[in-house]
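Hi support team,

I've been running sequence recovery on a batch of backbones for a student project. Most finish fine, but this one hangs at about 90% for roughly twenty minutes before it completes. I'm not sure whether the input is malformed or the queue is just slow. I've pasted the structure tokens below so you can try to reproduce it. Let me know if you need the job ID as well.

Thanks,
M.K.
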């Protein structure tokens, strides 16, 4: 698929996708005879995972490290697993904190509802 279709599927801009390729998050992107990038479903799944990591708060630097480990192959599976476990723990702690904030807001809203 071409850049436009790939961008639409992933929800990222072509600029962002070119940036990801430049910094090494998207490696081995094929090019057609005209030199235009040609993406496959493999890249779609990888970018969806990158987006998930970003949306859950993983810094781009850590995503790059994960990507480098991924490139090294199966011998890095344990290291990647550990990275994701650490990230999951941080995400759970953040969610727990956010739920406390939500509960406090709900309580304040209920207080106002009773007094209006």
């Amino acid at each position: 698929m071409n850049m436009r279709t790939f961008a639409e599927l992933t929800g990222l801009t072509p600029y962002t996708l070119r940036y990801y390729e430049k910094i090494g998050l998207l490696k081995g992107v094929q090019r057609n005879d005209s030199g235009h990038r040609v993406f496959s479903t493999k890249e779609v799944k990888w970018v969806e995972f990158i987006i998930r990591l970003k949306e859950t708060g993983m810094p781009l630097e850590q995503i790059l490290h994960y990507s480098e480990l991924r490139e090294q192959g199966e011998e890095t599976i344990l290291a990647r697993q550990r990275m994701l476990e650490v990230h999951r723990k941080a995400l759970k702690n953040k969610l727990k904190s956010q739920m406390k904030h939500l509960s406090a807001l709900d309580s304040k809203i209920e207080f106002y509802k009773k007094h209006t």
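--
Follow-up from support: It reproduced on our side and the slowdown came from queue contention, not your input. Strands lie at 30-31, 37-38. No action needed from you.
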